[in-house]
Amino acid sequence: MTLGPLEEELAKARAAYRNRGRWGEADVLGTLNFIDDAIRAHAAGLVRRGRSFSLAQGFDGLGDRTSTRWDGLGRGHDNKYAWHGGSRAVTDGDSVTGIEHLRDAFTGRGVLLDVGRAVGDARGELPDGYPISEEHLRDAVEAQGATSSVRRGDIVLVRTGQLGRVRRLGAWEGYASGDAPGLSFATLGWLHRTEIAAVATDTWGLEVRPSGFAEPAAEPLHRIAVPHLGLPLGELWDLEALAEDCAADGVYEFLLVAAPLPGTGAVGTPVNPIAVK
Question: Domain of 55?
Fold first, then answer.
């Protein structure tokens, strides 16, 4: 799938998918505002068996890859403007929307969309460069059943199967910088319309690489999702054991606690997410 000219598509997305100012000019939570006390209480009630899963890759052996992480609202920028509207470079510290403001925000209903199993190969894996579309996300929900229906305030985990493949083959070279399956730019409408709180995947960059644009495009989905939607993005999550359990018992919803390390001014952070079923 080849998209139109990059700047043209970015301009259309800026106009169509915008939450900036929705919760006031001083907002530091973005779409995490969608998680309220009722949603957290409901998520706690999803625990039936008490089985817990760490969704983190280990710090050791990652080489030049960083660990399982959240990208906060200071991580993405579009034309040098971030969620709070100020101008900044992506490598700067963030004194306005630092990750410390999200320290107690990432607790709620998690839902796994195992796109790898729904539309991938016999091993439940998508090939590198595979663009996940809105249709593929809907296919996963249909294949998995009612417990994977996506609701307002959910933290959505999208499994591509790439991590399982590189782990099985020992093919770590390129995992952090090469081609990868991932969310296509065209899923921005779904990410905005569903009013999810956050989204994470098992790949290094969350979005598909190459991007699908005819010209070079560095993280085009990030450029809209973070500074315009206010949507935190999770990368390098280990969804393999959780996905096996979900496939076995047919339940794809769970309590998810994924608190970031509250580094003052940090634009992202390592995290050890815990799913409890």
Answer: 6-276
